[in-house]
Structure formats: structure tokens, C-alpha cells
Amino acid sequence: MLKLIIVILLFILVTMLLLNIFNNNANTKSNENIVILVLICILSLALAYEELEITKYLKDQIKAKSYPKYKNYPASKILSWDKSCEQNNDKRCYNMGAVYFENKEYKKAFKYWSKAKGANRTYSSLGYLYLNGWGVKKDIKKAYELFEKSCGLNEGEGCHNLTTMILNDKTKDINLPYLRKLHKKGCELGVKISCKNLKWLHYHNLGAKSFYGVDGEKNLPRAFRYYKKGYELNESISCQGVASMYWSGKGGKKDEKKAFSFYQKACDLNDSKSCNNLGYFYLKGIGVQQDIDKSVELYTNLCDKNNTNSCHWAGIAWLYKENQSQAKKFFAKACSLGMKTDCPH
Predict the structure, then answer these.
(1) CATH for 91-201?
(2) For the chain, which residues score pLDDT lower than 50?
């Protein structure tokens, strides 16, 4: 509308100028006709321009109504994003992709995100589409590459998505140092779940997931490998995991001597459960020469720390030594700690 006002003002100005010229020269009928013709031409141009503006406005209104709803943004705002995207504004192209993704129009989301290569989260968002096969053919390898690129650009979401893919890949063992590095980076970039996952990310937890079939796949050989790696890093619970697998024979050949050795290592690393099991091995002579005194020593140390099960087994160890009074002492403590079976009847 402002442009139309300017054109009309120019029209009036030119009219006054022409009238002034002809008044100063000759006031003939021919000159008047020329003036009228010029004025008609200018006015026609102004009207034509305004008609184009009105047509464009109406087209924009029609186009705006075709957009799906997105949060609380008005259609006019979405229209402005689309126009900016046409001018290669990466951020606005990403916004348009988000509009269509939110409304599950994944092909259009893919189209806009593919144009928004310079915007934050673009590679991670494209990777998500490839990972799920939404709006594009499913391509796990491509998704991994995009998440990796996103993480390399310091996008926390990309780092998190990459760790999720690694954890869900059942075809190969996890490179824990690399995975921890990704979680740490995601955490530093503000992804809270990465901070949370970083706390439990140890080989013994990975081993336990494979051992017990968490997430649907029980893989004992893989569990054993994870426990062994944790043992090499002095993870006490991983040592316990290796020992228990050697003792039970799950995931490999039963080997009581190796089980004893790994329980000893775990006990040295202050794993109370392993110390308790070590006491049992000494008591029964499993994987080592029977040594009841050593068994009593281990169980007593744990009982002094209010380990209920160890108090119970200390009592049994004293029975092996045929010392009823000492046995009753430890059974009484086990009872006081909640082991009802050791309470007098």
C-alpha cells in the first residue's frame, strides 16, 4: 500500500510539472491531449502495480492456509519461514522441516531438512529420519554417519543418538572408552540423559545386561568378554562376574580354581559379596585347599560390618570347628540383623 501512495504522489507531481511546462509555452489542444495521455499511462501503471500486489497478497493468504498447525505459531509466521527458506536461510528451512515433522509429514520434513545443512540439529534430525525410515528409505549406516557428523559439530542430541545406536547394535561388542567419550561430550553439551548414562557405563553393567538378557538378548560369551575387560580395569564387580561364570560354567568351561582366583581379586578390591563367596570356597575347599580358620576370618570381618549373610555363615564355620558357643553368638547377630531362620525357636 505504501508503494501505491508513492506512485500516486509521483503521478500528481508529474501532472503539475507538465501543466506548468505547457502553460509556459503554448496552451494548445494538442499539448493538452499529450498531458492527458501521459497521465493516463502513469495511472494505468499504478493500478496495474496495485493489482499485482493484491494478487500476490491473496496467493500468500491461500498458501498460508495450506500449512499444517505448528505449536502456537500463526500461519503468517510459517509463511515467512518458507519464504526465507526459498532465499536459502538454513535456520528457516530447519523450522519448516520441524513443522512437517511435528505433523508426521516426513517426506516434506526430509525435503526441508535436506536444504538446511547449516542449521543446528539438521544432521541429527536427518539421521533420525534415516534410522526409522520416515520419509526416506531406511539406512542405518547413513543414520550413523549423520549422528557422528552432528556430534562432531558439538550438537549434544547427535552424540546422544549415536550412543543409543551403539548400545542397540547387537552384532558387535561395545567399545566402552569411545562410548564413554560420547556420553561425556553429550553431557557437557547439556543432554541430561547422557550425564545419567555416564554414571552406570561400566563393563560390569554391560556384562550384566548380556548375562541376564536385558533388552531382549541373552549373550553369555559376550557377557564374559565384558566382565574380563572390566577385570582388566580393576572393576571389582566385573571380577565377581568372571568368578561367578567360571564357578557356574555359564558362558564357558567350569573352572573352580579360576573362580577362586577371581573372587580373591574382587575381594582385594573390597567387593563384599566376593569376600563372602571366598569364605565359602575356603570352608568347602572349592578351588583351594580347605582352610576353616581363613573362612572364619573372612566371615567375621564381614559380620563386623553388619553383613547379615556373613554372620550366618560365620556361625556355620564355627560349627565346622565344633564350637557351639561361638556359632550361637554369630547366629544371634544374624537374627538381630533380620535373618529369622537364625533366631532361636
Answers:
(1) 1.25.40.10
(2) 2, 54, 57-58, 62
pLDDT of residue 62: 47
Q: What is the pLDDT of residue 20?
A: 58
Query: Distance (Å, rounded) from C-alpha 22 to C-alpha 12?
Result: 16
Neighbours of 282 (CB within 10 A): 24
Domain 202-290 and domain 291-345, same fold? Reply is: yes
What is residue 160's predicted lDDT score, i.e. its pLDDT?
Answer: 92
Q: Is CATH 1.25.40.10 correct for 202-290?
A: yes
The CATH architecture to which 291-345 belongs is Alpha Horseshoe (1.25)
Query: Which burial class, exposed, middle or buried, applies to 302 when counting CB atoms under 10 A from its CB (0-12, 13-18, 19+)?
Result: buried
pLDDT for res 345: 55
Nine cell digits for residue 266: 574382587
Q: How many CB atoms lie within 10 A of CB 194?
A: 22
- The pLDDT score that the predictor gives to residue 63 is 52
Q: What is the pLDDT of residue 316?
A: 93
Crossing angle, helix 176-188 and helix 192-200, to 10 degrees?
150
Residue boundaries of the structural domains of the chain: 2-60, 91-201, 202-290, 291-345
